[in-house]
Design a protein that fits this description.
Cofactor: FMN; Mg(2+)
Largest sheet: 8 strands, mixed
Strand content: 15-25%
Catalytic activity: (R)-4'-phosphopantothenate + L-cysteine + CTP = N-[(R)-4-phosphopantothenoyl]-L-cysteine + CMP + diphosphate + H(+); N-[(R)-4-phosphopantothenoyl]-L-cysteine + H(+) = (R)-4'-phosphopantetheine + CO2
Distance between the termini: 13 Å
Shape: elongated
Structural class: alpha/beta
GO cellular component, one term: phosphopantothenoylcysteine decarboxylase complex
Keywords: Decarboxylase, Flavoprotein, FMN, Ligase, Lyase, Magnesium, Metal-binding, Multifunctional enzyme
Protein name: Coenzyme A biosynthesis bifunctional protein CoaBC
């Protein structure tokens, strides 16, 4: 899985830096191309000569090398890499990356990198368990980065507990699993709907909802990371367009526009994830000019919007896999199961507005996945990035059960 992968190894100043020599050697042995960036403090724990000998390339540590006059372009380093691995990642470096601070070549490269980033934290137990460190780890995970869990064991201080950097073999195993995931849905095409729809009342006003599109965008990125080609159909959001080359973004405003794009793409799709919060109704008549305030009340006649999920469900072929969403406030499971059956979903993702930290506007979510076979999975409160990967993993498993995906994928 690591053959010919370009891995940028960032080493920071902690005692666990001595393990980076073995880590570099294991990556090279797996066939990866490795370049090393060291912070100045890391040089006090392991020699750059050791890392340059193992990687067979010069070690980078400064933006500008005064001895040679060379400028080390952090943008080029970030573009070169298929993956940036910071191991060990000290509490100081985690804090800087979480806050976007940039005062050395490694943090500059991190902020420029377009590739996936993995952190392998390493520090003493109390530092690791401190709320500030835990908050920084949560922020990095919410930003879509990957945290390799620390291991329990003896620490340099003599304490025993959490905070020990994962062993090099285990770090390599995490990278193996990541690149294996990227192959699971290779060759598959997916549609994802995201965000709200806006139904015009006049040129100024509309009917809409509070959906931000964060969950749908995260699912599109997770599907793309697993190798799928993704059509992302997005209602109006303030989100930046996804950067992944496997994602094609279509921006729409109304439910009817969203349906039109979905119908065009659906006949080629293997997977459809309908995460958008589509308006159920729209005004029957849309005023050409702004409606002026003329009385104490106003009535607007509404007509039903097309049901995108139900329409696609009616056209669903045996080789296609559909996932729906249900946002509920009461009789949650019963309503979700009814929707699952009615709209021909393979499974449905239940959101409850009664769960703290879930629903519209949050960076976190808590879901329950209900399948057509009666299975149930509860995620607990996680970042929407993590929830997206949970959903995509369930898609892969269910598709394997239905023989829509090879079991060894």
């Amino acid at each position: 899985m690591l053959k010919d992968k370009k891995i940028l190894l960032g080493i920071t100043g902690g005692i666990a830096a001595y393990k980076s020599a073995l880590l570099c050697r294991l990556l090279i042995k797996e066939g990866a191309q490795v370049r090393v960036i060291m912070t100045e403090t890391a040089k006090g724990f392991i020699s750059p000569l050791t890392l340059s000998t193992l990687s067979k390339h010069p070690v980078y540590s400064e933006l500008y090398d005064s001895d040679t006059g060379n400028w080390h372009n952090h943008v080029e380093l970030g573009l070169w890499a298929d993956l940036l691995l910071i191991a060990p990642a000290t509490a100081h470096t985690l804090a800087k990356c979480a806050q976007g601070l940039c005062d050395n070549l490694l943090t500059a490269t991190f902020l420029s990198a377009k590739c996936p980033v993995f952190f392998a934290p390493a520090m003493d137990r109390d530092m690791y368990l401190h709320p500030a460190t835990q908050r920084n780890l949560q922020q990095l995970a919410a930003d879509g980065h990957h945290i390799i869990p620390t291991e329990y064991g003896e620490l340099a201080s003599g304490l025993v507990g959490e905070g020990r950097m994962a062993e090099p073999e285990n770090i390599v195993r995490h990278l193996h699993d990541f690149f294996a995931q990227k192959q699971k849905l290779k060759g598959k095409k997916a549609i994802v709907t995201a965000g709200p729809t806006y139904e015009a009342i006049d040129p100024v006003r509309f009917i809409g909802n509070h959906s931000t599109g964060k969950m749908g965008y995260a699912i599109a990125e997770a599907l793309a990371q697993y190798g799928a080609e993704v059509v992302l159909v997005s209602g109006p959001t303030a989100l930046m367009p996804p950067k992944h080359p496997n994602i094609e973004l279509f921006k729409v405003t109304s439910a009817r526009e969203m349906l039109e794009v979905c119908m065009d793409a659906f006949h080629e799709a293997d997977i459809a994830v309908l995460a958008a919060a589509v308006a159920d109704y729209r005004p029957k008549e849309v005023a050409v000019q702004k409606i002026k305030k003329q009385s104490d009340s106003m009535q607007i006649e509404l007509v039903k919007n097309p049901d995108i999920a139900a329409t696609l469900g009616q056209h669903k072929k045996p080789y296609q896999f559909m996932v729906g969403f249900a946002l509920e406030t009461e009789n949650e499971k019963a309503n979700a199961l009814q929707k699952l059956k009615k709209k021909n979903f393979d499974f449905i993702v239940l959101n409850s507005l009664n769960d703290e930290g879930a629903g519209f506007g949050h960076d976190t979510n808590s879901i329950t996945i209900l399948t057509a076979e009666g299975e149930s999975y509860q995620s607990g409160l996680k970042s929407k990035k993590e929830i997206a990967y949970d959903i995509v993993e369930h898609i892969c498993r269910q598709m394997q059960k239905q023989a829509l995906l090879p079991v060894d994928a």
